[in-house]
Specification:
This protein is of the alpha+beta class. A hairpin with a 2-residue loop joins strand 2 and strand 3. The chain is built from 15 helices and 28 strands.
């Protein structure tokens, strides 16, 4: 196993330095494992030299000499040399690499500033990213301004027209005016008043407080996400967010009917069933969502007796009314406003008036005076028994309760702020200057003129259910008992389609009305008048639109309920889905026989919706209808608020029907609102 040692050489003066080595054979490999040195002496026994040569024998039989000191020969070899001599180079390299990697990871995650100082590497901000990558055209972190002035240039748009732009020679960036981008890409944006409320609150930037911020928005519309499964006895969709009466296309709230009068397609005003139903459903939903109202009882002729200012020519008394089995107040005044009996009031927050009223003569009226706390201007609301909707004479605003109000007890509920606001808007040429704030008004007095009776005068912050039942009663009294529909009394023109004559029915209006009546039936404890009207309202869903109903077919296969029963069919999406909700409401609320009929129509519509839904997907938004298929024209793209309505409706339906198509489509359409697009080929 071991070979004999070999003489390596003799010094010039006879001293011999001898090196020995040993070869170890193991697994057919040879290794040099031991190196020794020695020194021979002359005849006198003295060392012949202070130094000698050491020889290192390599595996390849090459010999290298190395000098070392005499002191090193006497002492033991240093520990470091022993470690090096016995070290496995391969293991050492692996350990070194592992140490470097471990150290780098620790520094990267726990001490990033040590590796990447802020002044060396730009911080990441996803607001500056383009297609999930970094935008190299942004200068630094946005805080450093360009040293060179921007150059005026001309932007040549699609080789059709030009607009003025700016160019930076420093970073070769072109700056395009947002006024152009707004219309070109149909986006919006606004400079924020402060920079502390970030659009992306999860982004921390040390310079946020120093930099102005421009809020870019692809869509300003809001998607309403359901908080739970849709409940036919609860809120209707997301309608607690609706304030129908404040819409500009609402002329006023009728004092005769207690429902909105629309000017959407006729300036003089008319009763629009769809809008009336939305008014009712909004108040029903608000009644559930809002806390209990604050109510101030001004007069009930029993426990709460007000002080009435009575002129000499007038009188007022409390009498027993056998019909109501309670005490009411009777009054009689001379002609002229100064003769009215009046109660002084100073109420600010409670602006919804409720009163039981019977007017005996055509000259009788209810008057309410309100005052602006800012301008001290007074406004007088007159509620009179006349066929008048709304009239304004300076600061006197008149609402007609209809001639049928004479000699008839009525319970009226009026939002005094809305009545003042609508009166000012109708009598002003500069509508924007006529608006006042709700908290600006307070009620000064309530007065009665002529001859009549009244009882139960209250002021409250709101009275949602009174408005709801006013609308429910309207649907009972204005239903066409022959067709079961609530006709629209104005003509309607849709571009490319034949004109809809006055009296046309709408599936959306029918569905909304059924949703109102189903809830009125439930909330009233089972008043069958509401159930009967709702059941009769199903009839138009089974009659073709060409025959006066709302039923259409797509490709002679899929049944559709038309919001606008046009020729050819238009297939409006949002109105169709609202009609489905009405059918679902009645199916879930009515007795079995009626529920079965409503359920059949609902499932028929849901089947068509699932088959046709993707026809409305444009890859970047949705279509309002399918006129591009019916008429062969360009698509009628849904604007932002209608697109958001489509998304909200699908999310709501997904709580009723578990088909993943509804949720998946809603999420994709929701992404379009943030600039996402369908993939191209």
């Amino acid at each position: 196993m071991f070979k004999s040692h070999t003489k390596a050489g003799i010094s010039a003066k006879g001293a011999k330095a001898v090196a020995t080595f040993k070869e170890v054979k193991s697994n057919n490999r040879k290794e040099n494992t031991i190196i020794t040195t020695g020194t021979t002496f002359n005849s006198s026994g003295d060392r012949t030299s202070r130094s000698s040569s050491r020889f290192i024998i390599n595996k390849g039989s090459s010999i290298v000499s190395e000098k070392y000191s005499f002191k090193s020969k006497i002492k033991r070899e240093p520990l470091f040399l022993l470690i090096i001599m016995r070290l496995n180079i391969k293991n050492f390299l692996f350990a070194l690499i592992a140490f470097v990697v471990f150290t780098g990871v620790v520094l990267y995650y726990f001490f990033p500033d040590f590796l990447f100082p802020h002044n060396l590497v730009q911080s990441w901000d996803r607001r500056l990213s383009v297609n999930h990558g970094y935008n190299p055209n942004i200068i630094g972190d946005g805080s450093r301004s360009l040293s060179a002035p921007l150059q005026n240039i001309e932007c040549w748009i699609n080789q059709e027209y030009s607009i003025p732009c700016k160019h930076s020679t420093e970073n070769n960036e072109v700056y395009v005016p947002f006024s152009f981008l707004r219309s070109y890409f149909d986006v919006s944006g606004v400079m924020l008043a402060t920079t502390t409320s970030s659009v992306n609150d999860n982004i921390n930037n040390a310079d946020d407080n120093a930099l102005p911020r421009f809020a870019w928005s692809h869509s300003n519309a809001k998607v309403n996400v359901p908080k739970g499964k849709y409940d036919t006895r609860g809120r209707f969709a997301y309608f607690e967010n609706y304030n129908v009466e404040v819409r500009e296309r609402v002329k006023c709230i009728s004092a005769a009917e207690g429902v909105p009068i629309s000017t959407q397609w006729e300036k003089s005003g008319y009763f629009y069933p769809t809008q009336i139903a939305q008014f009712a459903l909004a108040h029903y939903s608000k009644n559930i969502a809002d806390p209990p109202p604050k109510i101030k009882v001004l007069e009930d002729a029993d426990t709460n007796k007000a002080t009435w200012l009575t002129p000499k020519s007038s009188n007022i008394s409390r009498i027993w009314h056998p019909k109501f089995n309670s005490t009411v107040i009777q009054y009689e005044t001379a002609i002229g406003y100064d003769s009215a009996v009046r109660m002084e009031v100073n109420q600010t927050l409670e602006l919804v008036l409720s009163v039981d009223l019977l007017l005996v003569t055509n000259s009788s009226s209810l008057m309410v005076v309100l005052q602006s706390r800012d301008s001290q201007q007074t406004y007088t609301l007159h509620y009179i028994p006349a066929n008048l909707r709304l009239s304004t004479q300076e600061h006197n605003i008149y609402y007609g309760m209809g001639t049928s109000a004479v000699n008839r007890w009525r319970h009226i509920t009026r939002d005094l702020y809305i009545d003042v606001q609508k009166g000012l808007m109708s009598g002003s040429d500069k509508k924007s200057q006529s608006r006042i704030r709700r908290n600006e008004l307070h009620v000064s007095s309530v007065a009665f003129l002529g001859v009549g009776f009244f009882d139960n005068i209250t002021l409250s912050t709101y009275d949602h259910m009174a408005h709801f039942y006013d609308a429910a009663e309207w649907f009972i009294h204005h239903q066409d008992t022959k067709t079961g529909g609530w006709p629209n009394p104005v003509k309607r023109n849709l571009n490319g389609f034949t004109e809809l004559k006055a009296g046309w029915l709408s599936a959306m209006g029918q569905g909304h009305a059924i949703s109102v009546l189903a809830r009125a039936y439930y909330h009233s404890g089972g008043d069958k008048r509401y159930l009967k009207a709702a059941a009769l309202g199903l009839k138009p869903f089974k009659v073709n639109s060409s025959d006066g109903g709302v039923l259409a077919q797509f490709m002679d296969k899929y049944y559709w309920y038309e919001e606008y029963p046009t020729t050819p069919a238009s297939f409006v999406l949002n109105g169709f889905i609202y009609s489905l909700l009405g059918l679902y409401d009645l199916n879930s609320t009515a007795p079995l026989s009626i529920a079965r009929e409503a359920g059949k129509l609902f499932h028929q519509g849901m089947f068509s919706l699932k088959k046709m839904l993707l026809l409305y997907d444009t890859g970047s938004g949705t279509s309002y209808d399918l006129r591009h298929l019916s008429l062969g024209t360009a698509p009628n793209l849904a604007r932002d608020d209608y697109h958001a309505t489509h998304v909200s409706q699908l999310l709501l339906l997904s709580t009723i029907d578990s088909d993943p198509l509804l949720m998946e489509t809603a999420e994709r359409w929701k992404g379009y609102m943030f600039g996402k697009r369908a993939k191209h080929n």
